[in-house]
Amino acid sequence: xxxxxxxxxxxxxxxxxxxxxxxxxxxxxxxxxxxxxxxxxxxxxxxxxxxxxxxxxxxxxxxxxxxxxxxxxxxxxxxxxxxxxxxxxxxxxxxxxxxxxxxxxxxxxxxxxxxxxxxxxxxxxxxxxxxxxxxxxxxxxxxxxxxxxxxxxxxxxxxxxxxxxxxxxxxxxxxxxxxxxxxxxxxxxxxxxxxxxxxxxxxxxxxxxxxxxxxxxxxxxxxxxxxxxxxxxxxxxxxxxxxxxxxxxxxxxxxxxxxxxxxxxxxxxxxxxxxxxxxxxxxxxxxxxxxxxxxxxxxxxxxxxxxxxxxxx
Length: 313
Known about the structure:
The protein is mainly α. The protein folds into two domains: 9-66; 88-307, Rhomboid-like fold, CATH 1.20.1540. Helix content is 56%, strand content 6%. The protein contains twelve helices and five strands. It has helices spanning 23-32, 53-66, 88-102, 110-115, 119-125, 130-133, 141-162, 164-184, 196-208, 218-236, 245-265, 274-296; strands spanning 9-14, 38-40, 45-49, 117-118, 191-192. The strands form two sheets. Strands 1-3-2 form a three-stranded antiparallel sheet, with helices on one face. A two-stranded antiparallel sheet has the order 4-5. Strand 2 and strand 3 form a beta hairpin. The chain is elongated and about 110 Å long. The N and C termini lie far apart (93 Å). One of its GO terms (biological process) is proteolysis. Pfam families: Rhomboid. Keywords: Hydrolase, Membrane, Protease, Transmembrane, Transmembrane helix.
C-alpha cells in the first residue's frame, strides 16, 4: 500500500532505524531503471511519483527477494587453543646430543648400519623401525644444523597450534609414511637419514589444518596452504648433493593428509588438555626409544676397532 502526498509523491520504501544504511542501495535500484525519487534520510523513506509507484515497488520487491540471503551468515571461526610451551629445545637439543654420540655417516658407523633407511632391510626383512630411527640420524654437521634451525621453528609452530603431544604424535607417523612411500616407489636400493622428512611433514600438517576450514575462502583453504608448502619444498627441499627430494615431497604430502584429518576430527583443538598432551608426548618418545631398541637389539652400537682411527668427532 502507498501513502499519498500533496505534491504528487508517494512513499514506496521505509527503512527501520537499523536498516537506513540500505536506503542508498534501494535508491540505486530505482535509479538503474530510471525512476525519479526523493530520499528522506531523517525519516528513512524513499518517495517516487504516483505514476512510478507500482513499478518502483515491484523493483524493490524483486531486489529484496534476490538479496534475501546476502550477505551470508559468517561461519564459525575455529577457536584459538591455548597450549603449554612446547619442549622444542629439549627435542632438538636431544638431536644434537645424539649426533655427538653417533658421529657422521661413515661406512663403518654401526648407528647408521642399524638405523638408517635401507629399502631392502625394510621391504625384505621387515625392519620398519628404520623409518623412525633414520629421523634421528644426520649425515654431517651442516645437515644437522639446517634441520635444527629450520625444523625447530616449524615444529614449534606446529606444537603451539595443536598441542605438543598431538603435534609430535602426528608428526612421527606422517614422517614414517613419507619415508616408506619414498622407498616403495623406487626401483633401486635407497639409503637415507635425517629429520628433514619430518620437517616437511610438519609443514604439511600446518597447511593441511587450513584445508576445509569453514571460516576461510577457497583461496585460503587450497591455494595459500598448498602454495606455501610447495614454495618451501622448492626453496629448501629440492637442491643439494645429499638432498632427498622424494622424502621431502612425500613427507609434505603425508603431512597435508594428517593435518586435514586433525582439522576434520577437531583433534587439533585438544591442545589445552595438559595431561593428555603430556601422555601423547611420552608415547611419541616411547616410540622413538622402542624403534632404537629394536634396531640395536638393546645393545650400545660400537665401532669396529679397525675403523676407530678414521673417525673424528
